[in-house]
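Bug report (template v2)

What were you trying to do?
Predict the complex of my protein with adenosine-5'-triphosphate.

What happened?
Run completed; filing so the output is reviewed.

Input:
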Amino acid sequence: MRGARCPAAAVSKCIRCDAQSRGPGTHAGRVQRLDHHNHQLLDAVTAGSKGPVCVAVSGGSDSLSLLNLAEAWTEKSRRELLVLTIDHGLRPEAADEACWVADLARSRGIRVEILTWSPDKRSQNAARQARHSLLAEAARRAGASVVLLGHTLTDVVETLLMRLMRPARLAGAVGPQPVSVSPVWPQGRGIMLARPLLNLRREDLATDLRGQGQSWINDPSNDADYYERGRIRKLVNALDPARLERICFDAMRLRAIEDLQLSRFLTNRVRVDQSGLIEANVQHIEASPAVRARFLDILLQAASGASQGAAAPSVSALAETVFDDGPKSRVTLGGAWVQRRGNSLLMGRDPGEARKGWTGGVWDGRYVGRGAVADIPVLQASDLPFLVRDSAPDEPAREIISDRLVHWSRALMLSARFSAVMTLDR
Ligand SMILES: Nc1ncnc2c1ncn2[C@@H]1O[C@H](COP(=O)(O)OP(=O)(O)OP(=O)(O)O)[C@@H](O)[C@H]1O
């Protein structure tokens, strides 16, 4: 981290490469060494992309540390940064806080945009969803394809505990990943999220900022008991954080292996035909039930055009059936249908969904109907569902779906690589 000062730090070589770094085991040692690898993550995730690199900054200690890291990285990469800060309207101070962040960015010569959300629901989930939509839309407007988020190791630990306490959707089962696709669709099309601080503790980053004389914004709702996050934070402190971190690193490494396998499946086993129908070859697929379920989850989302997967127990149950033998007739889940044919799984958009409020024209941003809504046949009336033949005017459904799968595959591959790198010496 820029300007990190730690009296105990001694210069040595990084254990994973030849870069000079501070001695392992010290606060600054960890920050300096990871800095080096986190620059590599930024290099990899932005490779081949155009436009600015967006940094989501709330003004808290995590995202200000992220801004420092990103700024240091631009000295070498020469990429332009665009700070995005959201006035979420959930607290009276939110507007002032967004202005504070904007002033700070401008004082460093960094472009900044304030995004405003008018909450109609006050839940943290609704706020998160809205935040991702605003970030993705702003990134696309700016011609960017990468958004950096300030999640830390502390978030990984907290998320792990939260997930253990209630059933999750498959995508979030292990918590934030080093790289992932934007969780909103279609706003997040082509947008990659990267979390370069995922191996650093919140408290270490805060110590670092203090050392630089940098203040930050404290959001009291993060610790409030009425939010699950606040209750979990207290629980983490009451348990043994170091042990929890080790569990998280093990989970991240395991997940990295899964991600790599999934990335290969998406690249080698899936094709999308002209009509937007997805076909996955599942012959001799050797994968754990968890990987099969995640594979199916991604395919269902690509077929349905949904932002989120269906509930984890339903996807897992369906995966058990579809990868073995059946179903011979269509089964619908999460807005998509799936059917086994020979060695393949076929998947498409559930036409029954069109009955819910579609009034004709382009449906789902991807398909053009062939008749009136009232004519939509009952499921299983034909082999191909009513709506998959045609495409949206600008771009064929096939392109949209293939693009999403390719993007997903790349995110999984990068995530696997950096999960492994980030946790190697733990
Ligand atoms: N108001 C905001 N403006 C801009 N970016 C934000 C804002 N709030 C959060 N972020 C970004 O999101 C990151 C994660 O924030 P936080 O931990 O508060 O979210 P969360 O609700 O736990 O999210 P998630 O469910 O994605 O883990 C921050 O480090 C920052 O990069």
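What did the reviewer find?
The chain has two domains: 11-150+201-239, 261-408. Residues 56-58, 62-63, 84-86, 88, 124, 128, 131, 149-151, 155, 176 surround adenosine-5'-triphosphate (CB under 6 Å).
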